Amino acid sequence: MHVRLRPDWALPESAVSSESAYRLRRRDFLRLGLAGAAVLATRPLQGATYGFPSHLNPQYAGDGLTVTSEEWVTSYNNFYEFGYDKDDPKRFANRTWKTEPWTLELSGLIRNPGKHDVNDLLRKLGGIEQRIYRHRCVEAWSMVVPWDGVALAKLIAFADPKAEATHVRFTSFVDPEHAIGQQGRGSIDWPYVEGLRLDEAMNELSFLATGVFGKPIPNQNGAPIRLVVPWKYGFKGIKSITRIEFTDAEPRNTWKVLAPQEYGFYANVNPAVDHPRWSQASERIIGGSLLKGRQPTLPFNGYEKQVAALYRDLDLRRYY
Ligand SMILES: Nc1nc2c(c(=O)[nH]1)N[C@H]1C(S)=C(S)[C@@H](COP(=O)(O)O)O[C@H]1N2
Ligand SMILES: [Mo]
Predict the structure, then answer these.
(1) For labelling alongside 160, which of 53, 133, 142, 273 has CA 20 to 30 A away?
(2) Can you give the pTM of this predicted structure?
(3) What is the number of the ligand closest to the CA of 255?
(4) Quick check: CB of 172 below 6 Å from ligand 1?
């Protein structure tokens, strides 16, 4: 099953031979070490459909989009556990903070609760794939990022939710000794938490990223596992997850708790609903040129076709 139809959300990739994609995958075996190799070995070619050699970036990703350079993706970050400035996470998340080994707990209204070594769990879920997704921060900047990981729906199937489960709650870590942003008295009540409705979480776009540019995800991007929901503002994409819990009520989420007039639970990318401090009509392209530095924001960040039906009965102005 080496040839797959492209799903309709896939950004067209540039001319890359499956041979070079396969070589990239071979290198991953080395980079990821034994645990990662076992993950890939279960279905070694699965990522090849979307694979490309990272040394060619920036590169055309279709729709007039360019994959953001690896340098920008891994050095322009929001990760408040490691400081408020965009260049803080790269500096401060790579000093003494260790993201391996890492335990991920599955809990709440499921038939298969438990604590798992994250690599063991990924091996059980089987098969890392690559997804090139638009990435849009509520601060009105955007990137295009080639993630590696697994569909969140796979993990949900493994967890086996009970009928009462309606939402999924994600919790990041607390480690003030190694996370300088968690030291002292700040405005954020750690840990960072996020949530999705169960049907949103089951959507095929919802993704757990464990890699980027064909390499293990760097600490500053949310190692070893982070959420990616590309039709929502970036703050929904919680990094460095320690617990995924199934609930029967809408979970609180960090930014809504901090400033409910500014940030909601849904946070669907919407050019028609401005943030009080940022117009959402257009977005700044990170790493873009002076000539083409901005572009119009797309409803649901360009994924309207895949997700609009989830919100058929929702007033998107009220539930921003
Ligand atoms: N734990 C945690 N997750 C987080 C954040 C954070 O501060 N802490 N910031 C969010 C925001 S606002 C954005 S835009 C994205 C940024 O992801 P990136 O650095 O990989 O681009 O991570 C999100 N996930
Ligand atoms: Mo963000």
Answers:
(1) 133
(2) 0.85
(3) 1
(4) yes
Gap from CA of 18 to ligand 1 centroid (Å): 32
Q: What is the 3-state secondary structure (H, E, C) of the chain?
A: CCCCCCCCCCCCCCCCCHHHHHHHHHHHHHHHHHHHHHHHHHCCCHHHHHCCCHHHCCEEEECCEEECCHHHHCCCCCCHHHCCCCCHHHHHCCCCCCCCCCEEEEEECECCCEEEEHHHHHHHHCCCEEEEEEEEECCCEEEEEEEEEEEHHHHHHHHCECCCCCEEEEECCCCCCCCHHHCCCCCCCCCCEEEEEHHHHHCCCCEEEEEECCEECCHHHCCCCEEECCCECHHHCCCCCCEEEEECCCCCCHHHHHCCCCCCCCCECCCCCCCCCCCCCEEEECCCCCCCCEEECCHHHHCHHHHHHHHCCCCCCCCC
pLDDT tens digits for range 211-266: 999 999 999 999 999 999 999 999 999 999 999 999 999 999 999 999 999 999 99
Whether 25 lines ligand 1, by a CB cut-off of 6 Å, is no
Q: Does residue 240 have its Cβ closer than 6 Å to ligand 1?
A: yes
